[in-house]
Amino acid sequence: MPSLKDLKVRINSVKNTQKITSAMKMVSAAKLRRAQEQAEASRPYAERMERVLASLAASVADRDGAPALLAGTGKDQVHLIVVMTSDRGLCGAFNSSIVRQARRLARDLRRNGKTLKILCVGRKGRDQLRREFGSEIIGTIEGVGRPRLSFDEAATIASRIRQMFDHDEFDVCTIVYNKFKSAITQIVTAQQLIPFAPGGAANENADPELASYEYEPEEDAILADLLPRNVGMQIYRALLENAASEQGARMSAMDSATRNAGDMINRMTITYNRTRQAYITKELIEIISGAEAL
Amino acid sequence: MADTVKFELVSPERLLFSADVESVVVPGTEGDFGVLPGHARLISTVRPGVISVFQNGKVTDRIFVEGGFAEVTATGCTVLAEHAIPVAEIQRDKAQQAIQDAREDVEDAKDDETRKEAQKSLEVAEARLQAVDVVVY
Fold this sequence. Notes:
The complex is a heterodimer of chains A (294) and B (137).
Chain A: H1 4-61, H2 68-71, E1 78-84, H3 94-111, E2 115-121, H4 123-133, E3 137-141, H5 151-166, E4 172-180, E5 186-194, H6 200-205, E6 214-216, H7 219-293
Parallel strand pairs in A: 1-2, 1-4, 2-3
Antiparallel strand pairs in A: 4-5
Chain B: E1 5-10, E2 15-21, E3 23-28, E4 31-35, E5 42-55, E6 58-72, E7 76-81, E8 84-86, H1 92-108, H2 112-133
Parallel strand pairs in B: 1-7
Antiparallel strand pairs in B: 1-2, 3-4, 3-5, 5-6, 6-7, 6-8
Helix pairs in contact in B: 1-2
């Protein structure tokens, strides 16, 4: 049986852990709120961009000579997967669920004989993918969104991807990230970035009146200007969603860790009290039987 | 018909400006255009330059944008810009420094692609300086 002192030490150490996890939970809650506000603030831009783009794309797509970012290279051989994870752990299943999805996607592509390239955003994703796809990882971007995610960071990543595309280094680009739904629910999303695929929702939102717009310069020129911007915007959006998801996941992970620590402390305190009681009883018996012997 | 235009300037990070104004002048790629109430529906790209906001016949706000695109309807004008800064906040010496840096970049560029990029930032830098120097009347 562990001694009283051992128990006391263990209880104290669990108490300390609990203090840390509950502090982390509160920090995450504050950061989550900020991330959500940021995501909210980016919405007007994204919505308008999407609306204009969807209707422009619809009118240009069927014609020849549509920009490559929209129509693709005409091939489907080289795939680039951008895996967006966090740099830090202790956030529940957040990173591993993204990695799992990315791994599944990568294996599928491999089985179909496609060439694979992986770009990691965030250290955790690289660490987990390195063993299986070490030779396919072409780069890692770390330290994104610290102290605060800015559009420039997304633009830097976007321009790197665009440059690769211009150099014919891949045909299709997919980003994998966690879409934020609530603090406890995040949805792993694989979204095709290049060639641009207007989402179903975007099509429904397409303003029928947009047809009556005048364009200056022509539609093609506007589209050529807009599509690269859109790549940046989509990445910015994915990073925002991811940041919010990360904080949400960490918050709930730390919440349950705090609760588990509480349970553990309760259990150990009961054992501690019982043990103490047992010692007292034992000592009493010793005293009494000693007195009786006289 | 309303006699004001709802002008909105949006960046990816936030809504920068939103107000009912008399008119705005936007630097379109193919020339500046003014937006008054009842303007034809128009979508245009925007070159680096200054957006002027008019209230009561006077310029009340001048905002520098590094390009983007504008959506105009009969009742409103929305400009989507990745970077925007009020002209009053541009620092002249910094703007000049930026031009210098951009010029050097253009000269140092090793291939066409980097040169094109550098050329673009040079244009932005020059437009920024111009924005400071132009006298408002």
